Description:
48% of the residues lie in helices and 13% in strands. With 359 residues, it is an alpha/beta fold. Helix 8 packs parallel to helix 9 and helix 11 (211-220) crosses helix 12 (236-245).
Amino acid sequence: MNPKAYWIGFNKARGIGAVRLNQLLATCGSIEAAWRAPIHQLQQAGLDRRSLESLLAARQSLDLAAEWERVQRAGIQVITWEDADYPENLRHIDNPPPVLYVRGTLLAADIWAVGIVGTRRASTYGREVAYQLARQLAQAGVTVVSGLALGVDTVAHKAALEAGGRSLTVLGSGVDQIYPPENRGLARALADQGAVISEYALGTRPDARNFPPRNRIISGLSKGVIIVEAGVRSGALITARFAADQGRDVFAVPGSILHPGSAGCNALIQDGAVPVVSVQDVLAQLNLERVHQHKEVQTIAPGDAGEAAILSLLNGEPQHMDDIIRRARLPQTQVAGLLTLMELKGIVRQVGVQHYVRK
């Protein structure tokens, strides 16, 4: 049986999230071994009584072969922590979703992504701003991420697609349960020109409890998130909080102090969000002004062992090129050339004279 069937099994077992699954993998060694583990080993992995009972019930009730066949028939990709094509931005948040169901295609170039979210009851102003920002981001080669909701989300997705760009949407339901139903056609277009993504198993109906957690994926897929228009109780502000917690830049479009739909954005700006008056504010802040060049270099110059060696030495702390040369045990000219190439690809960033960090 395909190992991904076991990932689906854990995904459908209540109470087994990223933390507990990590504990199970560390204790049992593999996803299949974790699924088949005896009770004492499950307890050793730290499962409490409720989680243990839930997992045992799932093991008895689920036909994993049938679950895998169902996914295959639907033409859905199942992407897990173990897969190289798991989204790079998302991989580095706290407790990333172990399983993603994807209709469409995820690309390495989607690392250059920006989220655009906002109220469902967008004003004419909010719709136009969302349209212009999404269109201009797409024209700059940036992938636009949003949540398929009516209002700002819908406008952002459509504008990115109309500009010939890529757009990703994250659902609070299974990818076979499109919500809202008015956007089924848009979801098909997104699958053709991007991807429809969910951490929820096929057949999962939209539920109010699912939408706040999915917002962490919208921000997790993105380099930064733009809040276009939001009231003080808007769900878009949940996405902004997740983005801040994940270390992403939060942008907000200023609006009239007399319009309640702008109250949330204006409050975000007061709290330190970057005000957006043009797309250039976003591109410059996120260093996305050269995405087309980055993509071209990524295509013509795939990574090699030297790049991998350098990348493994870098983190968020600036390191001098001389230290990188010494630790990588590579010639100075090779390291200098690779660092220049990796900077063009958007993999590393120079933060001072000959000092580099991993992006």
